[in-house]
Amino acid sequence: MPIQSIEPRRLYRQIADQIRTLIRSGEFSAGSRLPPERDLARQLGVSRPSVREGLIALEVEGLVEVRIGSGISVLDASRNGDGRPEHQALAGPFELLRARSVVEGECAALAARSAKKAQLAAMEESLEMMQKEMEVATPAVNADRLFHLRVAEGTGNGALVQVVKMLWEERTGPLYKQLEHHYDSQELWDAALSEHRAVVNAIAAREPTAARAAMQRHLNQAYKRFSTGWNALQ
Q1: What is the domain range of residue 205?
Q2: Highest mean pLDDT: which range of 3-7, 13-17, 160-164
Q3: Is residue 25 domain-resident?
Q4: Angle 93-114/186-204 helices, nearest 10 degrees?
Q5: How far apart are alpha carbons 173 and 89 in whole angstroms?
Q6: Total domain count for the chain?
Q7: Among residues 201, 78, 195, 39, which one has the least CA distance to residue 130?
Q8: Burial code of 88-127, b = ≥16 C-beta within 10 A, e = fewer?
Q9: Where are the beta strands (DSSP E) in the chain?
Q10: What is the DSSP letter of 173?
Q11: What is the CATH number of the domain that holds 55?
Q12: pLDDT tens digits for 122-146?
């Protein structure tokens, strides 16, 4: 059963569906390895980030196992029911990061114009909370979320706060969390905290352009970190 070209709509799900079908048909047997990501991307006619999203979806389902530096192994499909997750993300992790860069970049710019002293203090408090969480070797997801919500609140726009909350619900979903799991490290969180500080400093200085750029740089760095991690598989 040959791999078919993918049409550009909800790519990560289509990619996962096609590879799942190939696994269940015996094209890729349990214990074997899938082709390298670059080869899958070329055969499917999609980008490598889209392939990563599809593969992560299959890992969440228990059909494949991703091992950094070793490749992607096929697991025993007979142990995993119909292989479809209960939760289907509205967007893949890389799509989500791009969307957050657009929305939260503008939130940071607006906060630089509108944030009250108390809201600036709340942003600083979220950074302190993040530092404390990191000191006990705990992934600082709670403080990370709080920081991004505090920036949104600094806009004075309740609708934007709700949008950021919705994006964070996707960010804490199984697809994104599984991707993040492979690259979670103290260095990643140290970088994230430093990037957060740059955002707050620009907001406190009342520099909208710098605040937007700092937030977009932060989220683009997350995109690059995840992309670089996958390259280790090749």
Answers
A1: 93-227
A2: 160-164
A3: yes
A4: 30
A5: 7
A6: 2
A7: 195
A8: ebebbbbbbbbbbbebbbbbbbbbbeebeeebbebbeebb
A9: 64-67, 71-74
A10: S
A11: 1.10.10.10
A12: 999 999 999 999 988 767 899 999 9
